[in-house]
Amino acid sequence: MLSWIKRHPLVAFFALAYAVSWWPWVWAALDPENAPSTILPPGPLLAALVVLVIIGGRSAVWQFLKRIVQWRVGLRWYVLVLLLPPIITAGAVGLSLKLGAAWEPHFPGWADLGARFVFILLFIALGEEPAWRGFALPRLMARRSALAASLILSVLHIIWHLPLFGVEYNFGNIVPWMVSVLSFAIIVTWIYLHTQGSLLLPMLFHTSVNVSAMMFRWISGDDMLRLWWLFAALWVGTAAIVIARYGPALTRRASALPA
Question: 253 phi and psi, to 5 degrees?
Fold first, then answer.
């Protein structure tokens, strides 16, 4: 088994990430009243650490963990990852209002907003992004363009969300939700390549996207689906700008990122 994992680390990683993350889904199916949730967000991180121990030992794990706190990347990247998601989400809400949507805005207190940000950063973003971008992405890019690797990763990421069907998305909004995830993957790869493989910046981007999603609660009913499509369209437009400027490589600089 260990020999097989060393030969197929990516397959082993995704299989383990799904297994570790999905066990609450099985629990929920068997005992819905007592199951804590339907998915375990830290599953990908745990899977990456297990596979790294097998294929590279403590040194590989240490190099991986150091990139989670790699923060010297330039102020403009922090501004981008923290402000772009709320700008996009607010833009989608604003367009919805222009098109006649009714809304009931509710602004949480700064303490609640800060607590939500910290929880998402340390439980969800930390559980996912280092594994997706720090472990899987470089290996997917070994024989592919950054764009192709991002799209493959986004599909596998979408599959990982399967237990959340009926919770975060449903048959009504599944298509714009998937389109948004595809766009996020391209943008996060672009950020990753321009910040020397920092895993902190993808974590902050993921957190900002999730925190900004509270604005979706301001609109309901039939207007919600239109909001989803506007949200997806704005992210597609943003990803298209990145592709148009940088091409399939998503960067113009030559880099040797750690795998």
Answer: -100, 145
Q: Alpha-carbon distance 157 to 180, whole Å?
A: 12
Write the CB contacts of 20 (distance below 8 Å, at least 6 apart in sequence): 40, 43, 44, 46, 47
Amino acid at 117: F
Residues 6+ apart with CB under 8 A from 24: 35, 36, 37, 38, 39, 40, 163
Spatial distance between the Cα atoms of 244 and 41, rounded to a whole number of angstroms: 33
What is the rounded distance in angstroms from the CA atom of residue 56 to the CA atom of residue 195? 24
69, two tokens: 């706190």
Q: Is the pTM of this model over 0.85?
A: yes
| CA-based R_g, the chain, Å | 19
| pLDDT, tens digit, 9 for 90 and up, residues 124-168 | 999 999 999 999 999 999 999 999 999 999 999 999 999 999 888
pLDDT in tens, 93-120: 999 999 999 888 888 888 999 999 999 9
Q: How far is Cα 119 from Cα 115, in angstroms, rounded to an integer?
A: 6
Could you tell me which of 216, 233, 198, 208 has the C-alpha nearest to residue 72?
198
Give per-residue burial for 145-183: e unless 16+ CB within 10 Å, then b.
Answer: ebbebbbbbbebbbebbebeeeeebeeebeebbbbbbbb
DSSP H or E segment with residue 34: none
* Residues whose CB falls within 8 Å of the CB of residue 205, separated by 6 or more in sequence, listed in order: 81, 84, 85, 129, 184, 187, 188, 191
Classify residue 190 as left (phi > 0), alpha (psi -120 to 50) or beta.
alpha
